[in-house]
Amino acid sequence: VQGFIAVTPTCSSLACSQVTELVLDNCRSSNGEIEGLNDSFKELQFLSMANVELTSLAKLPTLSKLRKLELSDNVISGGLEVLAERCPNLTYLNLSGNKIKDLGTVEALQNLKNLKSLDLFNCEITNLEDYRDSIFELLQQITYLDGFDQEDNEAPDSEDDDDEGDEDDDDEENEAGPPGEYEEEDDEDDGASDLGEGEEEEEVGLSYLMKEEIQDEEDDDDYVEGGDEEEEAEGVRGEKRKREPEDEGEEEED
């Protein structure tokens, strides 16, 4: 691919061996062949060569760790057997928008034992009668064809997204902590707040009772004083009554 050839002279074997993803979309091949890509990319897992006017995969290097290959919108019409030879661990293959017309061309993909998802959208082969049933019967290892399984359930966006979702869930669970810890803390807080309220109520009750006792004592004093005055008054009246008869008797004797 011409766009890739421009950078290959500065790409050492060591640097190339560290590349795991490579996107060459919209670069143009001078003769319909793959150019500038070699076996140095031994760690490559994702390769995209969409719309580069490829007609052949004959020069595809051995990429044993490649899992996803995007070849959409090219002019490929055959020669798919090279994929099983050079990229045996492919799980996803996109050949949409190419010149694939018959089941015989697709039959070469039977040797891709790990293939799970195949995209042939916009290829002439999709016009065949019972196209989907025929492909699923021919390639029994695949789960998704053109983004859907045999029951028309849509394929997930990617396996990586699912893995990231699981990791996020695990992180949330770890952050949340084991169940029960926060409940115990809440119970302790509730107990402390209840105790505080009780202490306040006790303080208020004591002061209130003390005030009542003081008032009761004052009332008792008033009541006692009043009683003494009444008793004194009654004593005076009694003495007067005693004196009066005595005085009357003395007058009679006189």
TrEMBL record:
Span list, region Disordered: 147-254
Protein name per UniProt: Acidic leucine-rich nuclear phosphoprotein 32 family member
Family annotation (InterPro entries): AN32, Leu-rich_rpt, LRR_dom_sf
Record keyword Cytoplasm present: yes
Pfam family membership, one: LRR_9
Biased composition (Acidic residues): 148-204, 214-233
Encoding gene (name): Anp32e
Record organism: Pardalotus punctatus (spotted pardalote)
UniProt keyword list: Chaperone, Chromatin regulator, Cytoplasm, Leucine-rich repeat, Nucleus, Repeat
Listed Basic and acidic residues bias regions: 234-245
Protein purpose: Histone chaperone that specifically mediates the genome-wide removal of histone H2A.Z/H2AZ1 from the nucleosome: removes H2A.Z/H2AZ1 from its normal sites of deposition, especially from enhancer and insulator regions. Not involved in deposition of H2A.Z/H2AZ1 in the nucleosome. May stabilize the evicted H2A.Z/H2AZ1-H2B dimer, thus shifting the equilibrium towards dissociation and the off-chromatin state. Inhibits activity of protein phosphatase 2A (PP2A). Does not inhibit protein phosphatase 1. May play a role in cerebellar development and synaptogenesis. Multifunctional protein that is involved in the regulation of many processes.
SUPFAM superfamilies assigned to the protein according to its UniProt record, in alphabetical order: L domain-like
GO cellular component: cytoplasm; nucleus
Location in the cell: Cytoplasm; Nucleus
Broad class of the protein's primary localization: cytoplasm
Family: Belongs to the ANP32 family.
Gene Ontology annotations of biological process type: chromatin organization; regulation of apoptotic process
GO molecular function, one term: phosphatase inhibitor activity
